Amino acid sequence: MNRRKTRFVIWSLDKETLEISTEYKSARAENFLDFTKRLPDSNCRYAAYDHEFKTADGRITSKMYFFFWTPNNASQVNNVIYTQSLKTLRDKLIGVVNYNVAKAEDIKEYLGNEWIQGKGFTAPQEEEAKSDSESDFE
Fold this sequence. Notes:
Elements: E1 8-13, E2 20-25, H1 32-38, E3 45-54, E4 60-69, H2 76-92, E5 97-101, H3 104-111, E6 115-116, E7 120-121
Parallel strand pairs: 4-5
Antiparallel strand pairs: 1-2, 1-3, 3-4, 6-7
Helix pairs in contact: 1-3
């Protein structure tokens, strides 16, 4: 996955040959909302995501995530086949953070603070509550 040209990659598994193949490779302009729309409702998938965000001190940085997508309504056979082949792909992706996710909300928990250069935040951000020392009435 070329991090400069691609935001995310989704892989599927052939149930008969157990070969992992690229199902979708995104454009760099896509974001985590596009990513969650591409994941199937009832089949497992593997995915890598290049997550850009701002640190607490305002620096722009990124982190590579590997997601094992296992939706709750995926068949037991589908879960077993994907789980058996999981190690093969994870071992090739060195230096990534691994997560198992079942719902789009789970993904938002990890990627919700996405900040893309030139676009800003992908999703609305909750404002932090002001502490007493930051009151407007001092």
